[in-house]
């Protein structure tokens, strides 16, 4: 009888030990799962936090000094060279184009679009007597340009530059008509006078008139001397800390009517 009791106690002891071991294993597994979940959640939160910080940094980042290189009167026989120079310097320009020139140089227009340059219009006639013949004649010219651009590449633009600038020639009625139809009128803050200057004079104008400005809109034209001065112009701007960007429709325009050019 005494032996039976001993065996029974031994069996009970083994059973209790087995229960304790099972509880311990189960607890360890649960702890691991909980810790694993905590670590996963922590990693996800860290990723979200880092992503938010990077996004925030990106959205708040704005260059301290900005330059817009704008080129009027094209496209022309010089456009491909201009695009090559911009590409070799890894910068984008903005082209204000004449309607008939777009028709004559469709390949260059498509290349501008493909390579991410800003594109806008400079009118049809380039003649202020025609441009402002009626209260809506200027609007009609830019609507014609827009149709031409769409026919060439399926794109539209609201960026325009009025021939000879928006002042003093533009009548109030014409200006109001363009604004009412959402056109964004751009003038300039630095006139290189390249249409009458040598290559050296163009570079000198950039050096002198481009000093101590946080943002500049440079006026150039599709001329041989401009092509020859463009590389040095870009070099000067970069050395002075400018980020060279294309004009887009999301940027508030600078023009003589608004009075934000200080030209």
From TrEMBL:
Residues 65-245 form the NodB homology domain. InterPro entries: Glyco_hydro/deAcase_b/a-brl, NODB_dom, Polysacc_deacetylase_ArnD. Keywords: Membrane, Transmembrane, Transmembrane helix. Pfam families: Polysacc_deac_1. The chain crosses the membrane at residues 7-27. This is Polysaccharide deacetylase. It comes from Romboutsia faecis.
